[in-house]
Specification:
six-stranded antiparallel beta sheet, alpha+beta, 12% strand
Length: 267
C-alpha cells in the first residue's frame, strides 16, 4: 500500500486527539469488477451505501459492494454506478420534500454525482485495517471534532472551507461523490436516510478528503493541537485570549484587573 504508514499515523492521531465515537475509514472506488480486495465482506442483501459504511465505522468490518448490492437508487446514481433513471431526472424521487416537481427536479439536478459508468464497485474499511489503497478518507464526528479536521486542512494553505447541502443525499453525494469529483475536502450533514437506516446521530457531521491530503491533515492536526485543543476548554469568565485578539477596551479591562492583583498573581 502506498500510504500505509501515513494512514496508520493519521488513524492514531484522530483516535487519540479527537476520539470520535466511530472509526474513520477509507473508501476506494473501483473502475472494474475484478479488483475486489481480499478479506472484504459483501452485504448479504441489498443495502444503502450509508448502511454499508455504518458496518465499517461502528463494527470495524471491511466491506465491498457492486451495483447489485445497493438498495438505494440515489447512492447508486451518485457513485456513478447507475445511470440516472427517470425518477431521478424528473425530481419525482425527491418530490416529498419539495413544494412541487420542478423544485424537486432542480434539487436532484444539482446533487453531486460521479459520472455514470466511471465506477463499478467500492470498498470501505477502517483506516488502520486497510488492505487496499483508498481514494478518500471519511470521518463522522461532532462539530468540534470535524472543525479540527478543517483547521488542519487550512493550517498551511489558509483560506476557508465552504460546503453546500440540500438536506438530503449526504454520505453518497455530499461526502463521497463531491470529494471525489472535486479532489478536495467536503463537509456534510448526514441525511434522513443515514439517520433512519445507518445510525447517524443528531450530533454528527461528516468530513471527507482525498487520501493525497492525509499527510497534510496529519501535519495540520499536530501543528494546531496546542492552540485548538480537543475537547475545547470551557471558559465563561473573561476570555483567556491573547491581547492581540481582543478589542482595546477589553485589553484595558484586563490590565485594570491585573493591576489590583497581588504581585506574582497577575497573568
Amino acid at each position: 500500500m502506498k500510504n500505509d504508514k501515513i494512514l496508520n499515523e493519521l488513524f492514531d492521531e484522530i483516535m487519540t486527539s479527537l476520539r470520535p465515537k466511530t472509526l474513520p475509514f477509507g473508501v476506494k472506488l473501483f473502475k472494474n469488477l475484478n479488483e475486489r480486495p481480499p478479506k472484504t465482506m459483501r452485504p448479504r442483501h441489498p443495502m444503502n451505501t450509508c448502511q454499508i459504511t455504518s458496518l465499517v465505522r461502528y463494527q470495524g468490518r471491511a466491506m465491498y459492494a457492486t451495483l447489485e448490492d445497493l438498495a438505494c437508487i440515489i447512492g447508486a446514481v451518485t457513485l456513478g454506478m447507475m445511470e440516472d433513471p427517470e425518477i431521478m431526472r424528473s425530481g419525482k424521487i425527491a418530490e416529498m420534500l419539495h413544494a412541487d416537481l420542478e423544485s424537486a427536479r432542480k434539487f436532484t439536478e444539482q446533487v453531486p454525482k460521479i459520472p455514470y459508468g466511471k465506477i463499478k464497485a467500492f470498498a470501505a474499511a477502517p483506516l488502520n485495517q486497510l488492505n487496499f489503497d483508498p481514494d478518500l478518507v471519511v470521518m463522522y464526528g461532532s462539530t468540534a471534532q470535524v472543525i479540527r479536521i478543517v483547521q488542519a486542512y487550512l493550517y498551511r494553505r489558509g483560506g476557508r472551507v465552504g460546503f453546500t447541502t440540500g438536506g438530503e443525499y449526504s454520505l453518497c453525494a455530499d461526502s463521497i461523490a463531491d470529494a471525489y469529483n472535486m479532489q478536495d475536502i467536503s463537509v456534510a450533514i448526514p441525511c434522513f436516510g443515514d439517520r433512519k437506516t445507518a445510525l447517524a446521530q443528531d450530533d454528527e457531521l461528516t468530513v471527507t478528503f482525498p487520501v493525497s491530503m492525509a499527510d497534510e491533515i496529519l501535519d495540520g492536526l499536530r501543528g494546531t493541537a496546542k492552540t485548538a485543543a480537543y475537547p475545547t476548554p470551557m471558559d465563561i469568565g473573561f476570555p483567556q485570549m491573547p491581547d492581540y485578539t481582543l478589542t482595546d477596551w477589553s485589553v484595558a479591562y484586563r490590565k485594570s484587573i491585573q493591576a489590583r492583583m497581588p504581585p506574582g498573581e497577575a497573568k
